[in-house]
Automatic annotation (TrEMBL):
Essential cell division protein. May link together the upstream cell division proteins, which are predominantly cytoplasmic, with the downstream cell division proteins, which are predominantly periplasmic. The chain crosses the membrane at residues 28-49. The keyword Lipid biosynthesis does not apply. Its main location: membrane. PANTHER family: CELL DIVISION PROTEIN FTSL. Keywords: Cell cycle, Cell division, Cell inner membrane, Cell membrane, Coiled coil, Membrane, Transmembrane, Transmembrane helix. Belongs to the FtsL family. This is Cell division protein FtsL. The lineage of its organism: Bacteria, Pseudomonadati, Pseudomonadota, Gammaproteobacteria, Pasteurellales. GO terms for biological process: FtsZ-dependent cytokinesis.
Amino acid sequence: MNVNEPLLNSQRYPLQHILIQDIFAANKFAFCLLFAIVITAIGTVWITYQTRALISQKSALTVQKEDLENEYVNLRLEETTLSNNSRIESIAINSLGMNRVKPEQEVVILE
């Protein structure tokens, strides 16, 4: 049935076909604009989601960096404390029973 043919009383208008033909034939520009708007909206939502995910990841990495910096400072302090000469001498004398070498016990080798 053609849209331009007159209808009899028992026939119904093919409204769906008329609307589809109207959208695709007469309003191609409007349909293209609608399609562009939908694509732009989806793109905006996707970009916003990606941006929020990256911001969340950045803040997690910042917290991890601060934790590592704190651990580094603590390790440096521990290294300084453990390498202190008086501590090493105290461990050598008390735990290992070592004594300082007396000048008469020293042996000097010359070539």
